[in-house]
Amino acid sequence: MPAVVTYVVGALEVTLVGAGAMLLWRQVLSPAARADAPDPALAPADRPTVDVFMFLFLVLTASFTGSLLAVQVSGLARLGAGSEAAMIVNGAGAQLGMLAGAALFRLRVEHRAFVPRPLSPAVLRDGFLTFLISLPVIVVTGSLWEQSLKLLGLPVHKQDLVSWFANAGSPWLLAGMISLAVLVAPVAEEFVFRAGLFRLLRGRVPRAVALFLPATVFAALHVNWPTLQGLVSFAPLLALAVVLSLAYERTGRIGTVIFAHACFNLNTILVIFSGLDP
Predict the structure, then answer these.
(1) What is the pTM of this model?
(2) How is the chain split into domains, by residue range?
(3) pLDDT beyond 70 at 80
């Protein structure tokens, strides 16, 4: 990548983080913002506790089934589990399976329509502002977490997907990875972790548990625990998940956090391709 592109993207990142820091202060942390904070638009869950376990069962079962079917139907099973293409297909199947499990829960258990709504200008605006506000939180959390890992002698290698994006040899494979990261993953993960787990736990358990339990699971799923690959991303992703849950609680609109999540993933891809350290 030409050095000028790296410098331009670096300047853009500094601008985004700075803008996010100002928004974080003005809209969240300042005394005026705390005094004028609106009541949460998201209503507490009114489902029985057993529905939490039903939701988890449906999502996990559908995710496993989706990943298995995706690899088998695509014919990539013969390439082996270590094939990048097979891993991408497996990931897409798992994400779509998670979404199918969440949809089935909403339709069959909650008896609610699962019809995507168009992203209105207000949703897009709030989603982008949420993305900006998350950036300084993620940068500070990530820096402190990485230094802590180094002090403990633990690895600080990035997620496997980071190297895949940086070294993708096929344009089709690259297009598939970008689509998975920007289109599929934000929708599936927000319906599972925010509109699913966080919403069902909120009002049933202490608020801190409702915020941090789904966020911890979300972040943990992005780490390869046998090798600790991606451990450096655990705390920043946990921070992102908490910010997204707070935004969902405040707005009551899942589209807001889906768009914020998509912006974050797209920004990460841009940083990777520019040669900056993500």
Answers:
(1) 0.92
(2) 3-47+120-274
(3) no
